[in-house]
Specification:
Helices cover about 50% and strands about 15% of the residues. By secondary structure, the protein is an alpha+beta fold. It has a four-stranded antiparallel β-sheet, with helices on one face. Keywords: Coiled coil.
Length: about 200
């Protein structure tokens, strides 16, 4: 009787040992499969990121090429007009605005074909605003039924960048002298005066 019990115990012990080994082996296979899948996924993500970077770089190069072609046409059109120094600097500023990825939600148009005069339109609600200012613009949106914009007129002189540009707020119209904005809309700031301006300063 004792021998039968010993045999039975050894049998079940052997079966359990085999089952444990099979489970360990299965667990290792699953773990290895998971690691392979994870590695494959990471490699695919790296490839996608590289492809996206290449597409972004190609798109940026195409945009810069178009911008350079436009600037070249403008330079040829205004050849002999204004100041060479001012023209080159204004077009450099314009190119920066058109190609920079850090500046968004705005549009620059020339007054006619004169790139010495800019009309700048900002989608104001897409910028960070104080609570009061945001409330005012949202009220304006409700009144007009249109998304509010902040419109500037920027006028460069032939002595730019050694003299500051003249900047005026066209829309919205200010009824009172508010902060740095006069009743007529011009910006009254030390940095836009001959004494406070620096030729190294960017329009941005």
């Amino acid at each position: 009787m004792s021998n039968k019990l010993d045999f039975k115990g050894k049998y079940y012990s052997t079966v359990k040992s085999i089952q444990d080994k099979e489970m360990d082996s299965r667990s290792l296979r699953l773990k290895a499969a998971h690691e392979r899948a994870k590695t494959r996924y990471e490699e695919e993500m790296v490839m996608k990121e590289k492809l996206q970077q290449q597409l972004d770089e190609r798109e940026k190069e195409e945009e810069e090429k178009k911008c350079d072609e436009k600037i070249e046409k403008l330079e040829n059109k205004f050849s002999g007009k204004g100041s060479v120094t001012a023209t080159k600097r204004i077009l450099k500023e314009y190119k920066h605005f058109q190609t920079s990825t850090d500046i968004e939600n705005f549009e620059i148009k020339f007054k006619g074909d004169n790139f010495y005069q800019w009309n700048v339109v900002l989608d104001i609600l897409k910028f960070e605003l104080t609570a009061d200012l945001k409330k005012d613009f949202e009220w304006a949106k409700d009144q007009s039924g249109r998304d509010p914009t902040l419109q500037f007129e920027v006028i460069f002189s032939s002595s730019f960048p050694f003299d500051p540009p003249f900047i005026r707020v066209v829309q919205p119209i200010f009824k009172f002298h508010t902060g740095h904005v006069t009743i007529g809309g011009s910006l009254c700031m030390e940095s836009l005066t001959p004494s406070g301006w620096s030729s190294a300063r960017s329009i941005e």
